[in-house]
Amino acid sequence: MSTGWLARLELGFEQDGQRSVLRHRRHEGPLRVQRSFHPEGNTCHSYLIHPPGGVVGGDRLEVAVDVAERAEALITTPAAGKFYRSAGPWARQTQRFRVGADASLEWLPALNILHGGARVRMHNRFDLAPGARLLAWDLVGLGRPGSGDDFSTGALDAGLQVWAGESPLLDERLRLEGGSPALTAPWGLGGHGYLATLLAWPATPSMLADLRTALNETPGPRPGCTLLETASGSGLLVCRWLAPAGEALWEALVASWSVLRPQVLGRPACPPRIWST
After folding, report:
1. Cα–Cα–Cα angle for 157, 11, 99, rounded to 5 degrees
2. What is the pLDDT of residues 13-54, one digit of tens each?
3. Which InterPro entries match (predicted)?
4. What is the mean pLDDT of the chain?
5. Is-contact 237 181, C-beta < 8 A?
6. What are the two backbone dihedrals, phi and then psi, of residue 191, each rounded to the nearest 5 degrees?
7. Contact 31, 61 (CB under 8 A)
8. What are the start-end ranges of the H helices in the chain?
9. What is the pLDDT of residues 101-160, one digit of tens each?
């Protein structure tokens, strides 16, 4: 007998005249989008909500997003996700994003917090058609340092894939066990409880140089960035951060997004209103 519950959400964005719209949405369980906004013209801003707030062992969250040809979508979440201590079963979060020809997706979720003892499997996959553009990030906190929770028990098994057509751009897996040396050793997380990854496609060496210059002029943690160039000349920019506090990483992600958005998407940064509340 299976334990936990399933929450599933499907979202489909299409271009309708002069603006992009959320044409299709289907949900099972508590995951949903209540409404969409157009604060900058064409781009459709949507807020993904999970009213229960927390996920326990045995629960499954599945998100499928399709951005059709020429559509522009920005999706964020209004609050941190929380994964609670498990007696044994894994909590699973699977998210797949398809971005059509000449379409764009911005996936900018809030922090996911893994309480000590949580057992979590996360998998994100992005499929990009010709001319597609992507800005996406992921931010994870291990334990709750302010509450004395140092993630001494638990586990994280995280996968990330990015495909351009039939070609894999990135395929990686991260496995961390609570209390393992990898959490504290210099060759691992070095005692940092928060980690983040940012993706930008298509990117160029000049974009990477501009980002490094901008971040060197601001306080906060410094990322390690790599440009994965392809035979076509396009590149996938991958930036990673480690930090002792989630707020500093959030600010670094927003600052990086603000620099990259005009270059990747051709429009200035327009922070979702929910970020100011």
Report:
1. 75
2. 999 999 999 999 999 999 999 889 999 999 999 999 988 879
3. UreD
4. 94
5. no
6. 85, 0
7. yes
8. 205-216, 246-264
9. 999 999 999 999 999 999 999 999 999 999 999 999 999 999 887 777 788 999 999 999
For tokens 């990854």, the residue is 197
**Contact, 164 vs 189, CB < 8 A?**
no
Q: What is the pTM of this model?
A: 0.96
Report whether pLDDT(2) > 70: no
CA 157, CA 119: separation in Å to the nearest integer? Answer: 8
Integer CA distances (angstroms), 235 to 40, 92, 201, 228, 266, in order: 27, 30, 6, 5, 17
Longest Cα–Cα distance of the chain, Å, equals 55
Contacts of 213 (CB under 8 A, 6+ apart): none
**Number of helical H runs and strand E runs in the chain:** 2, 18
- The Cα–Cα gap between 206 and 195 comes to 25
